[in-house]
Structure formats: C-alpha cells, structure tokens
Design a protein that fits this description.
single chain, 79 residues, mainly alpha, 434 Repressor (Amino-terminal Domain), 6 helices
C-alpha cells in the first residue's frame, strides 16, 4: 500500500471520487497508487493538496509514490 492510498482511505475517498476531484481518469489514480506510474509534477501537487498532506509525505525525491509502513495502515491499527 502506498501512502497515497493510505491517506485517500483516511479521507474516506474512493479512487473514483479522488479522480473526479482532480479531473483525471480513475485509472490514473490506480496506476499511481500501485506505484506503476510516476505522476507528473502537477498531479503530485494536486494529490498532496487534495489529501491535505505535504507532497514530500507522499512521494520520494524522484517523484515515485512512497510505500506506507505497516504500522500506518488501517488494518494494522485495528489489530
């Protein structure tokens, strides 16, 4: 799970709802969340703004999505 997915779930947003908010295809959200696509700079800024976190919390220095630590995930918190 990437931090994008973690914060999206924390905000109770579906992939489709986040995509609509950003004006992009839900498929782009899926590809970025799974780490299959590096988002362009404007999308990185938009994602960070929409999720209410700094861009550096979501992406590494090269722009790839960061993985969420197991302790951060909702499933791990519930246990």
């Amino acid at each position: 799970m990437t931090k994008i997915e973690f914060y999206r779930r924390e905000a109770s947003l579906s992939q489709s709802a986040l995509a609509r908010r950003l004006g992009i295809s839900p498929a782009n959200i899926v590809l970025v969340e799974r780490g299959h696509r590096k988002p362009w700079p404007k999308l990185r800024r938009q994602l960070a703004e929409a999720l209410g976190v700094p861009e550096t919390e979501l992406f590494d220095a090269e722009g790839w999505p960061l993985k969420a630590e197991l302790a951060e995930t909702p499933r791990a918190q519930a246990q």
